[in-house]
Amino acid sequence: MPYYRQVGEIPPKRHTQFRKPDGGLYAEELMGVEGFSSDSALLYHRHLPTAIVDAQAVADPRAPLTPNHPLKPRHFRTQDLKFSGDADAVSGRRTLFGNPDVVIAFVVATRPSPLYRNAVGDELLYVQGGSGVVETIYGALSVGDGDYVVIPTSTTYRVVPEGELRLFILEATGHVGPPKRYLSKKGQFLEHAPYCERDQRGPSEPLVVDGEDVDVLVRHRAGLTRYTYANHPFDVVGWDGCLYPWVFNIADFEPITGRVHQPPPVHQTFEGPNFVVCSFVPRKVDYHPLAVPVPYNHANVDSDELMFYVGGDYEARKGSGIGIGSLSLHPGGFTHGPQPGAAEASLGADRFDETAVMVDTFRPLDLGEAAVDTEDPRYAWSWAKRGPDWT
After folding, report:
1. Does residue 67 have a cis peptide bond before it, meaning omega lies within 30 degrees of 0?
2. Is this prediction's pTM over 0.85?
3. 115-131: b or e for each residue (b if 16 or more CB lie within 10 Å)?
4. Which helix (H) or strand (E) holds 200?
5. Under a CB-based contact definition with an 8 Å cutoff, are residues 120 and 210 in contact?
6. Local structure of 250: helix, strand or coil
């Protein structure tokens, strides 16, 4: 949970006169969620944040989604996705999966994105590789390998890669944050939480940019609109509050282990509307003398399980064709588990060197064009080693 921060210049009391050097008033903007009944931030602009000079409808490039039908486990390879040499982190996104709660995309960005604002819900960006800067109305955030970036709804931002930046992106239809069971009634991380406030990074100073007639692409419930603002939206001289973009690195997640195999909720890192995000990191594994370290076979009764493999060697999937950059989708209605021989091979292991990001959704995930383009048709038959596409 983002804690209270104060960045840049603000007046001693909110909603009171705060004057610029020329004597004019700074313009307040309250960014708040859930209708003034939850977290907010109060920003102070040099110019009116309401001053637009044009608004144009923009065609939405997203293609329709395809149901996972026939229902089966699937394997996709983001490492095979093709991107133009000048793709950016907003317009270059390719859709992997989606449902009414979340759209999941991937991009390899090499140039700065347009200014962008998602007014539908929070975004969670995971940096699979590379580095860059996420410039926002609150300030700038330097990001690199393994960083999760939480961008609150309606935050104006752009992504500036430093070289090639590989991003796994979740676009929610609501808010994304730490699981409530990690937090006290006042919002502080509790002692059993696998990460805490010290592991979070937020903007440390304003990003004050001058400019006139500046375009901002906005995603909203009816589609896409391009606004032209009279002045650059990054004209904020200061802000305070508990609502702002923040960064958490997967390497700072402290794994929870036990004598026998622990269920996926111990890896949970974020929750969103009808989905959760888990972090699997290098860790000591089960220490009961008869423990079987890899997962047991399990049926996803109420959820689809999507795993993004980003580092190390994932023990349970050996022999399946999965590698770094792969995504496995194990849908509700299908029992899945380790590959043949993996349970026996794991006996006696005391540590797993693996890093993965898992998304569990409580409504089925449909397939986007990027998933359809990169599916490995053999995966569903890899447990039996025979089937329609097995050779």
Report:
1. no
2. yes
3. bbbbebbbbbbbbbbbe
4. strand 200-201
5. no
6. helix
Cα dihedral 183, 361, 76, 62 sign: negative
- In single-letter form, the type of residue at position 328 comes to S
Contact 232, 264 (CB under 8 A): no
**Contact partners, residue 3, CB within 8 Å, separation at least 6:** 187, 188, 197, 200, 242
Q: Do strands 132-136 and 157-161 pair parallel, antiparallel, or not at all (unpaired)?
A: antiparallel
SS3 content of the chain, % helix, strand, coil (to 5): 10, 40, 50
Q: Which residues pair with 27 in a beta bridge?
A: 45
Contact 31, 264 (CB under 8 A): no
Could you give the residue ranges of the DSSP H alpha helices within the chain?
342-346, 369-373
Report the distance separating Cα 29 and Cα 36, nearest Å. 13
* Cβ atoms within 10 Å of 156's Cβ, excluding its own: 24
- SS3 assignment, position 98: strand
Q: How confident is the model at residue 315 (pLDDT cuts 50, 70, 90)?
A: low
Provide the b/e sequence for 297-320 (b: ≥16 CB within 10 Å).
eeebeebbbbbbbbbeebbbbbeb
What is the SS3 assignment for 336-362? ECCCCCHHHHHCCCCEECEEEEEEEEC
Q: How far apart, in whole angstroms, are the C-alpha atoms of residue 46 and residue 34?
A: 27
Q: Dig out the tokens for 55 from the structure.
A: 């608004």
Tokens encoding 168: 């796994």
Helix (H, G, I), strand (E, B) or coil at 316: helix
pLDDT in tens, 55-93: 999 999 999 999 999 999 999 999 999 998 899 999 999
Contact indicator for 170, 93 with CB cutoff of 8 Å: no
- Return d(Cα 247, Cα 253) in angstroms, integer: 12
Cα atoms found within 13 Å of the Cα of residue 274, Cβ hemisphere only? 18
pLDDT in tens, 219-247: 999 999 999 999 999 999 999 999 999 99
Tokens of 80: 């095979």
Tokens of 129: 């590789």
Residue that has been written with the tokens 């690195």 in this structure: 249
| Residue 154 DSSP label | T
How far apart CA 296 and CA 292 sit, in angstroms, is 8
Distance CA 218, CA 324 (A): 33
